Amino acid sequence: MHPSNPKSGVYMPLATASPWPSNVPPDNHRQAIFHSRHQTTRDRIILLFGNSYYPAFQKRAQRIGLCQRWCKLIYNQHSNRLRYHPYRCGDSFCPTCGPINHSKLAAHIESLVMKLNERRHLVLTPKSNDQPLKQQFRRLRYNFERLRRTRFWKTHCTGGVYCLHATRNLRKGQWHPHLHALIGGDYMLQKELVRLWKEVSGDSCIVWIGKPEGTHAAARELANYVGRPVQLDELPDAAILEYAENMIGVRKVQTFGCLHGQPKADKPKVLPDELPERQVDTSHVIWLNRLGCRHAAELLILISQRWPSEGRYIAFELPDLEIPPTVLDVWRSRKEPRDARGPPPAVRAARDAEIQKLEPELGRIAALFFADEDQGVHREAELDNQITRKVA
User: Fold this and answer.
1) Residues 6 or more apart in contact with residue 198 via CB below 8 angstroms
2) Under DSSP, is residue 124 helix (H, G, I), strand (E, B) or coil?
3) What is this structure's pTM?
4) Could you say which of 30, 41, 100, 299 is the most buried, measured as most Cβ atoms within 10 Å of its Cβ?
5) What whole-number distance in Å separates Cα of residue 357 and Cα of residue 305?
6) What is the rounded end-to-end Cα distance, in angstroms, of the chain?
């Protein structure tokens, strides 16, 4: 096999001046704004995956390269609501989509853990070795299953959820996997856990257990462990490719005990009379605003208030548009390091209340905007612009 093929288990670092993958288009203005916080890391991932000999990695590079390239605004005529639907790759290695995936996973973990009594955070660590990461994960999962079969565990633990996480020892070149779990049940003596873990693992006695600071914080901490490695900026190219290949097909999150088989929250069903929807791209609304179409400017201002990240792009394309300064302040605050516990409940409640106030006005202006489109106002403006350009 080729030495750079992940299936062979042997990796060669790529050249520092690797060419940009041919299947990944360069970023447009919208992508340059949305990925400005992580542009260096994102470009590195695209170069690594795009220049790999593994076709699956090349497709991942293409998806990451198209992330946030466009955005659809979907208006429902019956509910009078405007939804924001940007294109996201959803890849765990994408520095923009990774935090979004973590937030969704943290919300799901929190909803499950709330059903447990006397919640505790458990960390199990095997002894470091030179085996491939996937084999270490299999052994770690198998040993944890053996631990759950013991009488002590069945007596003191009712169930929980766990995730797999790995760090890299840069000096020794070894992977160091961990198992983080949120469990419920009675008090568990750490000495007995250490003894049982050493008995089932055979070579490790590293066990930590304690009460989490809060359910929300613990759920976010577990979700942050899922996905790409923590020290991505410190890892060499070969280690990143090795990690990505070893994580293919690995279940990173799993429930057990009383939480096993718990369904996810039901999504609201769409009734047949709510199916008619209208779609428009944000860049098209910006173009209509430049042509002087009615309600385009009002719609863009409300969009920037409802979704501050989109407001940053609108402010870049239309510097003369009167976007409230608070929108840009929200975007600047998001560039600062985020607390792993998330925003305080009071801040989240205030933001939700502000969104509820914007929804009716946003729906009203969106209805007027699409009414102009039905009446041919937008088409007339485009035709006038074409005639003006031909005459010029």
Assistant:
1) 204, 205
2) strand
3) 0.79
4) 299
5) 11
6) 61
